[in-house]
Amino acid sequence: MIWLGIESSCDETACAILRDDPLEILSNPLYSQIQEHAKYGGVVPEVAARAHLEKITTICQKAIDEAKISLKDIDAIAFTRGPGLMGPLLVGASFARGLARDLNIPAYGINHLEGHLSAAWLTEQDLEPPYLTLTVSGGHTELVVEEPGFKYTLLGRTRDDAAGEAFDKSGILIGLQYPAGSTISKLAKGKNRKFHNFPRALKNEDNGEFSFSGLKTAVRRYVESNSPEFIQENLGDIAASLEDAIIDSLVAKTIWALKKTGFKTLIVGGGVSANGLLRERLGKYCESHGIRLAFPTLYNSTDNGAMIAAAAIRRARAGMLPETSTEVKPWLPLAI
Ligand SMILES: Nc1ncnc2c1ncn2[C@@H]1O[C@H](COP(=O)(O)OP(=O)(O)OP(=O)(O)O)[C@@H](O)[C@H]1O
Ligand SMILES: [Mg+2]
């Protein structure tokens, strides 16, 4: 069975071709709209929708060409139905449905977050729920228990900004370009993580909640009370201190959730799961506590088409594919 996965919820136009049984990613190209949005310091929904419209046919054709298949070989389509930006979601869903109708095949709407949590499964297919999951992305930061049958229970999420948003907004305040997560991580390498003590809100509270908006304010105050030259001269150390604060909060609450639930498997997904410090620190804890830890590949950590097809394949194998007539939903939590 050949699947086409389509992701268009935010600022990546992504398509992938996957073969199931045995599972193989035949192609997974994407067009990143970073340059379109960088000058605005964040994603502009209208600009994103237009860029998806311009690129989606090209990226889909690229996925087909790289997979060395033809259009008529596709048996089913999986597209992101939410959560995400309305315009971008509509572009992907309309494209998927139109193509499905032409080819007389089904098109299934997939939850983007279930996609992120299925990305690690692409490399470790023996992962079976129940387990603890941590989603850390541009729009989400949450600890969720996944049980068989795609049943999700929320342990805690961010009260305000997401971890990726904290990287991006803090980065812009210290003069970096959107999206700043991977830039901060690169600048931080080998630098002094104790250079400045940025706040770790809620870190010691007995719950699974996060908060990053105070960090943003602290960074703004820090930038205002120091000269531009000082910030520039110490950019590496400031980036390292920032990264330390964000990752420290994520790791502390994940350990809280592991202790609380007793799960021996942890799955991480979302763009911030590409972060080396997060991988290193969770890796250390899990190794010393006999916990299996699964991350996606670096490429599959951020938005891509393969993770959407992966979620559909997991559901197909379990006989739990969604209805084909689903609407797009900008707000679509995995668990409330
Ligand atoms: N190495 C890294 N370290 C820290 N953050 C990173 C790294 N690489 C990417 N990110 C962050 O990941 C985010 C993008 O992730 P992703 O593509 O999953 O987000 P999104 O799809 O926009 O949000 P969501 O999945 O919540 O809808 C950005 O905020 C970016 O800064
Ligand atoms: Mg995402």
TrEMBL record:
SUPFAM superfamilies: Actin-like ATPase domain (SSF53067). Its cofactor is Fe(2+). Fe cation binds at residues 112, 116, 303. Residues 24-309 form the Gcp-like domain. One of its GO terms (biological process) is tRNA threonylcarbamoyladenosine modification. It catalyses: L-threonylcarbamoyladenylate + adenosine(37) in tRNA = N(6)-L-threonylcarbamoyladenosine(37) in tRNA + AMP + H(+). Keywords: Acyltransferase, Cytoplasm, Iron, Metal-binding, Transferase, tRNA processing. It is found in: Cytoplasm. PROSITE patterns: GLYCOPROTEASE (PS01016). GO terms for cellular component: cytoplasm. Binds 1 Fe(2+) ion per subunit. Its EC number is 2.3.1.234. One of its GO terms (molecular function) is iron ion binding. It is an enzyme of class 2 (transferase). Pfam families: TsaD. Substrate binds at residues 135-139, 168, 181, 275. Belongs to the KAE1 / TsaD family. HAMAP family: TsaD (MF_01445). PANTHER family: TRNA N6-ADENOSINE THREONYLCARBAMOYLTRANSFERASE, TRNA N6-ADENOSINE THREONYLCARBAMOYLTRANSFERASE, MITOCHONDRIAL. Required for the formation of a threonylcarbamoyl group on adenosine at position 37 (t(6)A37) in tRNAs that read codons beginning with adenine. Is involved in the transfer of the threonylcarbamoyl moiety of threonylcarbamoyl-AMP (TC-AMP) to the N6 group of A37, together with TsaE and TsaB. TsaD likely plays a direct catalytic role in this reaction. This is tRNA N6-adenosine threonylcarbamoyltransferase. It comes from Hallerella succinigenes.
